[in-house]
Amino acid sequence: MYIEAIVLEGFKSYSNRVYVGPLHPQFNAVTGLNGTGKSNILDSICFVLGITNHALVRATKLDDLVYKQGQAGVTKATVTLKFRNDPHQQNNPLPFPYREMPEITITRQIVIGGRDRYLLNSRNAQLKEVRDFFHCCQMNINSPHFMIQQGKITKVINMKPKEVLGLIEEVSGTRMYELKRGNAVKLMQKKEQKLQEISVVLREEIEPTIERLRKEKQEYFNFVSMKEEMQRFQRFDVAYRFYSAKQLLQQGTSDFDELTQKKAEIEAQIAECDRETAAAQKQLEDVDTEREKLDGPLQRVRQKKEEVEKLLAKRHSEEKTARRDLKLFSDALEDLKKEEQKLAKKLAEKRASRLSETSHAEAAEEEVKRVKEALENAEKKLEGLSTGGAEAGGGASLREKLKQAKTKAAQLEAEEEDLKTELKHVDEELRQVRAKLNKSGESAAQMTTQRDAAAARVAALEKQLAAEAVDEEKLASLREEMKLCRREIDAAKHEAQESQHELNSWSKIAVRLPRGMHPHKLHGQVFELVELKNDYLDFAKALQLLVGGKLEYVVVEDKDASKAIFKENNFASSRRRVTLLPIQDCQVGKICDTATLFQNRRLVGLSQDDPRVLRCLDVIDFDANRHEKVALYTFGGSLICATAEMAEKITYQPNKRQAFPTVTVEGDVFQTGGVMAGGGSGHVKETLLLWKNFKRCSQMSQELEERARQIDFYLQPMEQTVQRRTQVTRELRLAQNELHNIEQLMATSSAGSEMARAQQLEERRRDCTKRKEEVEAEKGKVLAEVQQLEADVYELEHNRDKLEASLKKEVKVLRQRLKSLEASVNTLQKEIGSFRQELMTLEKDLQSVQEDIEKRTQGLADLQKAIEEKSKLVAEQKAKVEDVRKEIELCLSEAAQSDKKLGELTGKLKKLQKNKDHLLLTLKKHQHLMNDREKNIGAARQEMEALQRANDWLHAEERKFNQPGSAYDFRQLRPETARQRLQALQVEVQRLQKSVNSAAATLLEKTEKDLLALVERKTQVENDKAKIEAVISELDIKKRQSLETTWLQVNENFTGIFEQLLPNAQAKLAQVNPRDLMDGLEMRIAFNKRWKESLAELSGGQRSLLALSLILALLKVKPAPVYILDEVDAALDLSHTQNIGSMIKTQFPTSQFIIVSLKEGMFSHADVLFRTRLIDGVSNVERHALAERPQRRDGTSASDDAAGSARKKFRKHARGEDSGEDGPN
Q1: Which residues form the SMC hinge domain (predicted)?
Q2: pLDDT over 70 for what percent of the chain?
C-alpha cells in the first residue's frame, strides 16, 4: 500500500483545491523555495493521520491550519489521502475489509469554530478507527518513526539509552502492545475501583439493608406476640383491680371504726404533756440565772491564762533559739571532727606511703651494696687471672664453694631420710587412732555432726547479724524528731481544743439537719465563712464591736431550709437567741464601693491609697463564689478608721449617701443614727481571732501529723531492724554457748580425745610432708649448684682465656648496673624529702583543727548550760500555766455542773416537746388515715362499678379470682409484676406499631436473592481479572524476546546502512548493561575498526549520518508503506546527500519515500519531483517525472539514460526561472 495522491483544500497556504499526484510508489521528492509550502504537504499527511501534537505541524490550535485562520473567506480545511492497495499482497497488514479494496481514501476536515471529522472511504469514522487503521500499517502518528521531520536527526543523536530502546520497541511492535496493555491495565484499575465501589455498596448499603430487614421481620413477629400477651395481661390487671377494690371496701369499713377510738386516746396524752412542759420550763429559768453568775470569774481567769501563755511562748521561743544555736554549733563541731578524721587519715596514708618509699629506697641501697660486692668479687677474679695464678685468682674459692655445696647436699639428704622415718611413724600412729575412732564410731560421728551443725548455725547467725545493720545515729535522730513532733502535735491540739471550747461557750451554735436535707443547704455561721487577713489581726476587736451578733448568724441556702432547720432544732424555745440568714433571700443594704471609699478618704484629708481608712470588706477573706452576699450583708456598709476624729467626720458628714457606720482600732463605734459607743471594750470576745486561731492550730496539727507519718515511714523499718537485730543477737549468743559446750564435751570424752589426737597427727603429717617437699626442692637446687661449680672449676682450669673475657664482660655490666642503681637511689632520696615536707604541713593542719575543736567543745558546753537555764525558766512558766489551767478547770467544773443541769432540763423540755410533736403528728396522721379510709371506700365502690360497666366478662369470671391454678391466681403471679409487664408491653406495642414493617419478610427474601446473584457476578469478574493478569505476564516475557530479536536485526541493518553512507566507518547498537537489555541501548562508532568512546568527537555531518542510519535501520526492520523525510540532508554536503539518495533506492526498493529537500544531490535520485511555488500568497504544486518507470513496487526501474535526461531537463528549467515569492507556511 502506498499514497497515490494528496488533495489539499483550505489547508495552510493551499487556499484552493490542489491535487498533488500521482505519487511514485518508491521515491518522491518535494522541493521549492523557502516559504512556498513544501513542508505543508508533509503537515497535511500528518493532519490526516490524526496527529494531536500541534507543535509538530507548526500550529498552536486546529484553527491555525485553516488558510489565514478563516480571515480570507476560507472557513474550513480539508485534506484527502488516496492510497493504492494490492489485494493480492501476502501478509497484508490492513484489517478486513480494507485489505481487499484496491483504493482507499481517508479525509479529515476541520471547520473554524466547528467540529473535526474523519471520512474513511467517504464514510464518517471515529478518530480511534482511523488511528487503528494506520497502526496496522506501522504508521502511528503519535510515535512517528516513519516520519523524519526537521530537527528529528538532532533529537535522535541526543537520545538517551532508554529512548533508543523505545525506538526498538516501536519497531518490534511492542509499543502498540504497551499502549494496549496500558489501556487494559487502566481499564482493569477502573473496573477494580468499580468492584471496590460495589463491595462498599454491598458492605455499607445492601448488607445493612438485609440486616435491617431481618431485624424488622423479627420486630414484626415480636409485635404480634407482644400484642397477644398484652391482651392477656390486661384481663389479669382488670380482674386484680376489681378483686382489690372489693377487698379494700370490706377492710376500709373495719379500719375506720378503730381509728376513731384511737384518736380520742391521743388527745388525752397531749393534754398531760402540756402540764409537764410548764413545770420543766420554770426549773430551767431558775438554773439559767445561777449559771450567769459564774461567767465573771471564769472570764478573769481566762484573761490571766492568756498573759501567762504569752510569756510561756516567749520563753519557748528563747529556748528554741538557743537550741537552734546549739544545733548549729554542734553541726560545726561535727564538721571539724570529720575534717580532723580526714586529715588524720591523709596523714596516716602519707606516712604509710613514706614507709613504702623508704622501704624502696632501702631495697635500692641493698641492691647497690650487693652489686658492689659482686663487682669487687668479679674484679678480684679478673685480677687473679691477669696475674697468672689460677688458684690465687679464684680457683681456691671455687673449690671451697664446691666443697661447701657437697656438704650441704649431704645434710639435706640426711634430713630427708629423717622426715621419711617420722612420716612413717606418724602414719602408723594415725592408723591406730583411726581404728579406735572406728570402734567408737557412731558416738564420734554424732558429736562431729553436732559440732558442725552448731558451727554452721553460728556462722549463719553472724552473717544475718551483719546483714541487719542499722545507722544508730540516724535512728536516734529520728526518734528524737518523732518525740518533738508528737509533743508539738499535743500542744497544737490542746490549743485548738481550748479555742473551740471558748467558741462553744459564747458563739458556736449546734445545728442539726432535718432528715433528708442535703448538707450543702447549711453553710455555717458567719464567723466560720469569713477569715481575718493576717495583716489586720489587730482589727478583730473593732469588727466584733461593729457587726456585733451578726457574726453568730446561721447561714442557710433559702427560706425553706431556714424553716425546716429552725423547726428541727426547736430554736423557738431555746434560751439563746438564734438568727438564721437565708443567702438567696437576704437583702444587702448600702455598700461602700471603691469610689465612695476614695471620697471619704479625701474628706478626712487622706490620699486615695492611705490605709488609715479601710472598708471592713478589705480586711477579711471569703469565698467570692458562694459567700460574697453574706460578706456584703455583714461588712459591706461599714468602715474602719485610724482615729475617732476621722470616724466621726465620715459617719456624721452632711452627704448621707457617703456616710457609713465606722469603728476605730481601739473600739470606738459611730453609727449613722447618732449612736456612739466606746471606752469599755476590754472584755470583748474576739470571735474572728479565736476562729482563726482554731483553724491555724487544727491545720498545724494536721501538718505535724503528716510530718509524723513521714518520720514513721523511715523510723518503722529501722525499729523493725533493731528488733530483728536484738533477736538475732540473742539467738547468736545461745548458738555460741551451744557450740562451746559441744567442743568441751568432745575434749573431755574418750572419743573426743582420740579425735583431737587424730587432728594433731594429721597436722603433724601435713607439716612433715610440706617440709619434705621443701627439702627435696632445696636438695635439687644444691645438686644443681654442685654441678655448676664443678663445671666452673673445669672451665677455670681448661678455658682460662674464655673465662677472662667473660669476667671482663661481667665487670662492665655490673658497673653499668651500679651507676643506674645509684641514680635511682638519689631520686628516691629527693622524693623522701618532699614527703617529709608534706607530712609536716599535714601535722600542722591537724594540730590547728584539734585546737579549734577544743575551743568549740568549750563553747558547746556553755551553750548547753544556757539552754538548761532557759529550760528551767520554761518549766517554771509551764507550772504557772498549769496552775492557771487548774483554776480554769475548777471554774469550768462549777460551770459544767450548771451546764449539766441546764442540759438535763433542756433535754427534758426537748423530749417533752418531741413527745408532744410526736403525739400531734400521730393525731394528724390518724385524722389523715380516717379521711383516707373514707376516700378509699368511696373510690373502691366507684371503681368496682366502673369496671363492671366496662367489662361484661367480670361477673362470669369473678368466681375464679385468686383461685389456685386459675388464670387469675394472684399469689402465683404478683399483680405488681403483671402491671409492670403490661405497661412495658403497652409502651413496646405502641412503639412497634409506628415502625413495624409487615412486608419485611417478603422484602428480605427478594433482597437476599439479589445479593447472591450480585456476589456471584462479582466473583466471576475477579476470576476474569486474574486470568487477564496471567496473560499479561506471559506477553511481557514474549515482548522481551521480541525486543532482543529486533535489536539484533536493527543492529545488522544499522551497520550496513552506515557503512554505505560513510565508507571506512563502522557503527553498532550496544547494550548499556550487558546483562540486561532493558537498561537501554547506545550508538557506538568506529573509524578503521577503532571505536570511539563518545559521539562528541564526531562532526555535525557524521552525527547526522549516524542518526539517519539508525532511523533507516529501524524502518527497514518492519517497513511502513510510506516514509516521510523533511530536509534530513540540511547538515550534509553533496557527496553524503548523493549517498543517501543512492542508499534509499538500494535499501528500500519496496517502500514509498516522500522527501522534502533543497539539495540537488538528494532529489536527483527521485522518480518524481514536485516543485512548490507561491503565487499571490497561495501555494501551487508542479509535478516533474524524472524517470519514466512503471508504477511497480518490485524494486526495478527504467533505463538510467532516460532518468538522467529528465533530471538535466529539470535542472535547466529550474535555472531559467525567477525566484518565487516568500510567504508564510
Answers
A1: 520-651
A2: 86
Give me the domain span that covers residue 101.
2-146+1123-1215
Question: What is the side-by-side order of every strand in the sheet holding 554-556?
Answer: 522-525, 554-556, 580-582
The domain boundary, picked from 684, 711, 735, lies at: 684
Domain for residue 116, yes or no? Answer: yes
CA distance 537 to 321: 25
| pTM recorded for the entire structure | 0.35
CATH of the domain at 32: 3.40.50.300
b/e string for 617-646 if b means 16 or more Cβ within 10 A? bbbbebeeeebebbbbbbbbbbbbbbebeb
Pick the closest to residue 332 from 868, 863, 860, 864 (CA basis).
860
Q: Would 913 be classed as within a structural domain?
A: no
Distance CA 104, CA 1208 (A): 35
Q: Residue 754, SS3? A: helix
Write the pLDDT tens digit of every residue in 278-331.
787 777 777 767 766 666 676 677 677 777 777 777 777 677 777 776 776 677
Sign, CA dihedral 244-246-248-254, equals negative
What CATH number has the domain bearing residue 633? 3.30.70.1620
The tally of CA atoms less than 13 A away on the side-chain side of residue 764 is 17
Best CA proximity match to 1172, nearest among 44, 26, 166: 44
For residue 114, is it within any domain? yes
Output the pLDDT for position 175.
64
The DSSP string of 1-68 is -EEEEEEEESBTTB-S-EEE-PPPSSEEEEEE-TTSSHHHHHHHHHHHHT---GGGGT-SSGGGGBGG
Q: Which residues 6+ apart lie within 8 Å of 454 measured at CB?
A: 735, 738, 739, 742
Q: How distant, in Å, are the alpha carbons of 259, 266, 823, 927 from that of 254?
A: 9, 20, 136, 16
Count of domains forming the chain: 2
pLDDT digits (tens, 9 = 90+) for 1118-1140: 777 888 887 777 767 776 777 77
Q: Nearest CA to 666 among 676, 650, 683, 679?
A: 679
Strands 522-525 and 554-556: antiparallel
Residue written as grid cell 464567723 = 527
SS3 834: helix
**Given pLDDT bands bounded at 50, 70 and 90, which one contains residue 640?**
very high
DSSP 159-184: --HHHHHHHHHHHHTHHHHHHHHHHH
CA distance 412 to 454: 46
From 668, 684, 700, the end of a domain falls on 684
Grouping H, G, I as helix, E, B as strand and the rest as coil, residue 303 is helix
Length of the chain: 1225
Residue type, 865: K
515 within a domain of the structure (yes/no): yes
**Biggest alpha carbon–alpha carbon distance for the chain:** 169
Q: Is the pLDDT of residue 264 over 90?
A: no
Cell of 773: 617437699
Cβ atoms of residues 557 and 591 within 8 Å = no
Selected residue with higher pLDDT from 1172 and 350: 1172
Distances (CA, A) of 1078 to 171, 371, 387, 1035, 1073: 15, 88, 101, 16, 8
- 1124 in Cβ contact with 1151 (< 8 Å): no
Q: Are 506 and 302 in contact (CB under 8 A)?
A: no
CB atoms under 10 Å from CB of 85, counted, come to 19
Listed in order, strand segments (DSSP E) in 1088-1191 are: 1090-1091, 1122-1126, 1152-1156, 1168-1175, 1178-1185
Would you state the pLDDT for residue 1187? Answer: 57
Phi-psi domain of 822 (left: phi exceeds 0; alpha: psi -120 through 50; beta: other): alpha
Per-residue confidence (pLDDT) for residue 1023, from 0 to 100: 77
pLDDT in tens, 887-898: 777 777 777 777
How many Cβ atoms are within 10 Å of 949's Cβ, its own excluded?
Answer: 9
